[in-house]
């Protein structure tokens, strides 16, 4: 028995996802008009338009990368939809109408209704509804939307919700209407994690790096991080919110989410540089931004900056650019000794993951590994260190106006001290 899902981009048919249940094989076949049309793009760099049909071993990692890599969430979804949590096709057919990126994964019986706009709707949320959704996420008891049968999917280990902001209210979108923001409640394991991420995103912007827009949202007396989706834009002519296609670098290289860390067989920082060099339309600018992002995570001890936290934006005619930064957070305020030998980065720099060992020598060695000029790399790293040192106080002051607390002071002081230490390591 073979089941299918239609891949749609706006009103255009992109391809067919087919699952042979007997063989347990998933294939992707591009529609001819999309494969050979103008202004199109591949579903993934790992699924190029040059090939009409892609086999299971190429398709399955991409699909898995659209889903949360939190086993508890996937298990909950499997129970709710009465399907195997280990089969991404079965999960996607229930949650694939508002994924990261621009594509809708639609069941055959819903295809014409979606295209005709008959399922388009925005269901407004009361303050109480929103608070209950955030409580559900915190408990991981039900990490899917309540109103529309869970038709959204966000990759990542942290539970999160995707909603549409319009006319000063939050709504649950359906049909062709996309979500516009991601809402992330506090993590129980880490104090003030939402404020941490908000601070680091603001800091990245002040350093000169493109970063997702964020704000702190109070919901029933608790902080929620609200992040504007960079893969959504408003069409100034129609006033409609449009989807922009994206994928993370783990997906682009055809790897599974469990391989997101380099130590688990995932991409290296040099590998991502090579990916940008090969496919990015402005490779020099994107490589520069990526090196600066690596440097920022080195300074702030961004230990979770793995390959799923770097993404690529696909434009028409297969234009490709590095996406803005997201999921930035510092480990410094949670470690009694931030330079403990146990603190490791997600990707090696100069042959080591250990934060305390990395200095100018390691950066130069990594530059050679990535095929970059060592002097250029160390200059970019030095620039980031200097800009972080200059921007910490201003970032703290801006956030203190509404979220002044002991944690904010601890975080800012720790990053400031770390920046001074890093400057010493870069003579």
Major sheet size, sense and barrel closure: 6 strands, antiparallel
Q: What is the helix fraction of residues, given as a range?
A: 25-40%
Q: Give the termini distance in whole angstroms.
A: 65 Å
Content of β-strand: 15-25%
Overall outline: globular
Radius of gyration, CA atoms, in whole angstroms: 21 Å
Integer count of domains? 2
The helix/strand class is alpha+beta
Order of the strands making up the biggest sheet: 6-8-7-9-11-10
Question: What is the helix tally?
Answer: 13
- What are the segments in which pLDDT stays under 50 over at least 5 consecutive residues? 141-152
Average of pLDDT: 92
| Overall number of strands | 18
Describe this structure in words.
This protein has 2 domains: 2-185, no CATH class; 245-424, Phosphatidylinositol 3-kinase Catalytic Subunit, Chain A, Domain 5 (Orthogonal Bundle), CATH 1.10.1070. The protein is 38% helix and 21% strand. The protein has 13 helices and 18 strands. The protein has helices at 32-35, 56-65, 71-81, 88-95, 108-115, 127-139, 193-207, 249-252, 269-279, 283-300, 360-370, 374-403, 406-424; strands at 2-9, 12-20, 25-30, 53-54, 104-106, 121-124, 161-166, 169-174, 181-185, 214-219, 222-228, 232-234, 241-243, 245-248, 311-315, 319-322, 344-349, 352-354. The strands form 5 sheets. A 6-stranded antiparallel beta sheet has the order 6-8-7-9-11-10. A 5-stranded antiparallel beta sheet has the order 4-3-2-1-5. It has a 3-stranded antiparallel beta sheet with strand order 14-15-16. The longest helix is centred in the last third of the chain and has 30 residues, at 374-403. Mean pLDDT is 92; it is low at 141-152.
């Amino acid at each position: 028995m073979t089941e299918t899902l239609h891949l749609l981009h706006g009103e255009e048919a992109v391809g067919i996802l087919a699952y042979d249940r007997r063989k347990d094989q998933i294939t992707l076949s591009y529609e001819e008009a999309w494969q050979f049309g103008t202004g199109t793009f591949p579903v993934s760099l790992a699924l190029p338009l040059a090939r009409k049909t892609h086999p299971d071993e190429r398709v399955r990692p991409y699909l898995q990368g659209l889903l949360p890599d939190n086993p508890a969430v996937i298990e909950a979804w499997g129970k709710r939809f009465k399907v195997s949590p280990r089969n991404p096709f079965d999960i996607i057919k229930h949650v694939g109408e508002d994924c990261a990126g621009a594509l809708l994964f639609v069941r055959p019986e819903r295809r014409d209704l979606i295209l005709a706009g008959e399922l388009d709707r925005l269901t407004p949320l009361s303050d109480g509804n929103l608070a209950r959704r955030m409580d559900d996420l915190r408990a991981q008891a039900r990490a899917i939307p309540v109103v529309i049968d869970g038709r959204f999917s966000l990759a990542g280990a942290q539970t999160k919700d995707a909603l549409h902001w319009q006319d000063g209210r939050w709504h649950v979108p359906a049909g062709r209407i996309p979500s516009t923001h991601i809402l992330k409640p506090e993590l129980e394991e880490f104090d003030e994690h939402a404020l941490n991420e908000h601070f680091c995103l603001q800091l990245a912007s002040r350093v000169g790096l493109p970063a997702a827009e964020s704000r702190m949202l109070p919901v029933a007396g608790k902080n929620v991080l609200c992040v504007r989706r960079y893969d959504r834009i408003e069409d100034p002519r129609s006033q409609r919110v449009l989807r922009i296609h994206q994928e993370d670098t783990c997906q682009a290289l055809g790897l599974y989410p469990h391989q997101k860390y380099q130590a688990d067989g995932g991409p290296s920082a040099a590998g991502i540089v090579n990916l940008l060099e090969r496919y990015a339309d402005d490779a020099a600018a994107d490589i520069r931004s990526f090196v600066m992002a690596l440097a920022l995570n080195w300074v702030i001890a961004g230990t979770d900056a793995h390959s799923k936290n770097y993404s690529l934006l696909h434009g028409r005619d297969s234009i490709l650019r590095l996406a803005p930064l997201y999921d930035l957070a510092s480990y410094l305020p949670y470690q009694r000794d931030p330079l403990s030998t146990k603190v490791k980065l997600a990707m090696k720099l100069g042959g080591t993951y250990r934060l305390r060992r990395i200095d100018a020598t390691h950066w130069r060695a990594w530059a050679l590994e990535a095929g970059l000029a060592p002097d250029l790399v160390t200059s970019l790293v030095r620039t980031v260190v200097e800009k972080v040192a200059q921007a910490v106080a201003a970032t703290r002051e801006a956030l203190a106006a509404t979220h002044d607390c002991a944690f904010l002071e601890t975080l800012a002081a720790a990053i400031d001290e770390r920046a001074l230490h890093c400057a010493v390591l870069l003579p």
